[in-house]
Amino acid sequence: MGFPKRRMRRLRSSDAMRKLVRQAVVTINDLVYPLFVRSGKGLKEPIKSMDGCFHLSPDLMAAEAATVASLGIPAVLLFGLPDTKDEQGSAAWAEDGVVQQATRRIKDSCPELVVITDLCLCAYTTTGHCGVVKQGRVDNDATCELLAKTALSHAQAGADVIAPSDMMDGRVGYIRRCLEENGFHNTAIMSYAAKYASAFYGPFRDAADSAPQFGDRRGYQMDPANSNQAMQEIELDIEEGADIVMVKPALCFLDIIHRAKTRFDCPVAAYFVSGEYMMINAAAQAGLLDKEAAMMEALTCIKRAGADIIITYFAKEAAKSLGA
After folding, report:
1. Which DSSP string corresponds to 96-124?
2. Chain CA centroid to CA 148, Å
3. 284, containing H or E segment
4. Residues 6 or more apart from 102 whose CB is under 8 A from it?
5. What is the separation of C-alpha 306 from the centre of its chain, rounded to a whole number of angstroms?
6. C-alpha to C-alpha distance for 117 and 147, rounded to whole angstroms
């Protein structure tokens, strides 16, 4: 009989042909670069647990933002490390907090760059938990009130997008009401809607000094075994006023990204987290794989699953590769 009429290899015969029929294409416009800001001046310290990442003081944020913008990356995501911590995490909403300072400097120097601020109390509390602890448990509603207060301070500093990552029930509604009541009608919310209790956050928790001092976060972050709950979480956040929803981590939860994009008519972000990032770096350092090829394959898989936005520590490297 010979070969059938259709040979699938015809569309793989050359690089130009493969590009012509390629479906999922990662662009620089898809990328968000996370930055860690801590108090001080002239501070740029390597983060030991995360290759190529640094703790930066607010005064160096303008220069870093300029570098990011020059690569064509449209947005940064800020994480703060305060000087002092307390039970409530009060440094989170301080007018002169590190995130607030960094936001002002970035918006002054690169107004076109979208500034997204991570909203959580874990790096600000003495417990390392994402909210106020009462009788050994995180108090959901008391935490939501403090998150709204912090969100307002970020918006007042000039943040374009507030990104609550705490996984408290109802927090998007609290934040949206607070922003609206204070005139910040155009400040967007990107909720960490389906944030799983993952083992892949380890390097980040070292970088952000945010590891819980007792217990774990499984009482509020999602069980990795569950997918239907993720759809419920996302739906609730959209109803409460989220403009963008996020799935975190990305690589181990591609099915959740796909389900979210198929079901909901709003932008879907995916966080390519620290542990996933360092797996590729570590394997490359051991000579086990090609770092750039693995990086681009992983980013493409996240895009193919349905992500519109990819938050990744590879953003600058990927932008250089894509712009080459």
Report:
1. T-HHHHHHHHHHHH-TTSEEEEEE-STTT
2. 19
3. helix 274-285
4. 35, 37, 56, 58, 61, 78, 80
5. 16
6. 12
Contacts of 61 (CB under 8 A, 6+ apart): 35, 37, 101, 102, 105, 106
Residue type for 134, please? K
The angle subtended at Cα 59 by Cα 113 and Cα 316, nearest 5°, is 45
Residue 286, classed as helix, strand or coil, is coil
Interval 80-105: pLDDT, tens: 999 999 999 999 999 999 999 999 99
Catalytic residues: 195, 248
Instruction: Map out the domains of the chain as residue ranges.
Output: 18-217+226-323
Spatial contact of 244 and 267, defined as CB atoms under 8 Å apart: yes
- DSSP conformation letters of 168-225: -TTHHHHHHHHHHHTT-TT-EEEEEEEEB--GGGHHHHHHHT---SSS-STTTSBPTT
If one counts every other C-beta atom within 10 angstroms of the C-beta of residue 42, the result is 8
* Residue-wise pLDDT tens digits, 202-230: 898 777 666 777 767 788 899 999 999 99
Length of the chain: 324
What sign for the dihedral angle of Cα 221, 227, 228, 230? positive
Give CATH for domain 18-217+226-323: 3.20.20.70
Other Cβ atoms within 10 Å of 108 Cβ, number: 12
